[in-house]
Design goal:
Blueprint lengths: L1 H5 L1 H18 L1 H12 L7 H35 L4
Helix pairs in contact: 2-4, 3-4
Length: 84
């Protein structure tokens, strides 16, 4: 338990970094699933579908980048104990 108390920030940053990397690796799958759920029960023009698909992939990509950067910087700061 004492190790968890000492290293809780590092563990939090590692989880954040891991979630960000998972989002980055699966952004296409998540984007396709989002657009599929969006057009459930109806049709859509191909160009419109591709626009929605590209924007939804970008959304997951940006979330993954932000989480990965925050987690990675937090890990570096915690390991090297840099004070700001």
């Amino acid at each position: 338990m004492s190790l968890l108390k000492k290293r809780w920030k590092l563990i939090l940053f590692m989880v954040t970094f891991t979630i960000g990397m998972i989002l980055l690796q699966n952004c296409v799958k998540y984007g396709e699933q989002y657009v599929h759920n969006l057009m459930y029960g109806g049709g859509m023009d191909t160009n419109q579908y591709l626009i929605y698909l590209g924007k939804s992939i970008d959304k997951y990509k940006i979330m993954g980048i932000i989480l990965s950067i925050l987690g990675g910087v937090g890990i570096i700061i915690d390991i090297f104990k840099v004070d700001f």
